[in-house]
Amino acid sequence: MTSITGMMQKHFGRAANLSAFVRGYLAVKLVVCLMALAILSAGAPAQETAFSRAASVLQPQSYVSLQPVPRGSAFEIAVVAKITPGFHVNAHEPSEEYLIPTKVTADLPPGITVVETDYPRGVMRGFNFSKTQLRVYETSFTVRMKMRAGNAAALGHQKIPLTIGYQACNQDSCLPPTKIPATAELEIAAADTPARPANTDIFAPAGASKSTRPR
């Protein structure tokens, strides 16, 4: 009897030790998981802040060259973007291949097409994070989109969604690349409707710029 009792005590003692080991292992694993979750949670707001800050660097405004725009007419949409002081964005045709270009695109309704887009060339500037000067836009820039309203364009008030993609940098570092929206509003009229020039200060003859045709 004594022998059996001893064996049982030895067996249950080992089981108790194993159970304690398992509980300890699970407790350590839980602590590690909670620490990892805390690190990820702390990093998320910082990442959101960086993207939010990047999106606020440009303040775009859109303009249309005709009012109204008769069917069959050529017209322009201009995006004038102000840049927050202390920042710049890369030119549409940057001076280095690794740079992310500034680009404006339009989500066009049926009957309206883009003929070509004129971007400013930009200026060459030196920055602490680059050994060479880079071609950038600073202070503000204007992108002009030459467009045509076809005979199938819907009559009446139209909103054309625009997207400006860019990467903003300061003297020392860059924010994450981002895209921000803008909207161009215009009135499409019948083909024989008289039209008058609008926003003539914006659509004065452009200076040195680079035209790109949609592909």
Describe the structure.
This protein has 215 residues and is α+β, with helices and mostly antiparallel strands. The chain has 2 domains: 1-55; 56-203, Immunoglobulin-like (Sandwich), CATH 2.60.40. The chain is 25% helix and 40% strand. The protein is built from 1 helix and 15 strands, in the order αβββββββββββββββ. It has one helix at 2-55, and strands spanning 58-64, 66-67, 69-70, 74-83, 88-90, 103-106, 112-120, 123-125, 134-138, 140-149, 156-166, 168-169, 178-189, 196-197, 209-212. The strands form 4 sheets. Strands 1-4-10-7-15 form a 5-stranded antiparallel β-sheet, with no helix packed on it. A 4-stranded mixed β-sheet has the order 3-13-11-6, covered by helices on one side. The radius of gyration is 31 Å and the shape is elongated. The protein starts with a helix and ends with a strand. The model has no long low-confidence stretch (mean pLDDT 84).
Q: What strand order characterises the main sheet? A: 1-4-10-7-15
Question: Mean pLDDT, as a whole number?
Answer: 84
Query: Largest beta sheet, briefly?
Result: 5 strands, antiparallel
Percent range for β-strand residues: 35-45%
Helical segment count: 1
Task: Tell me the number of strands.
Answer: 15
Short structural description:
The termini are far apart. The protein contains one helix and 15 strands, in the order αβββββββββββββββ. The protein has one helix at 2-55; strands at residues 58-64, 66-67, 69-70, 74-83, 88-90, 103-106, 112-120, 123-125, 134-138, 140-149, 156-166, 168-169, 178-189, 196-197, 209-212.
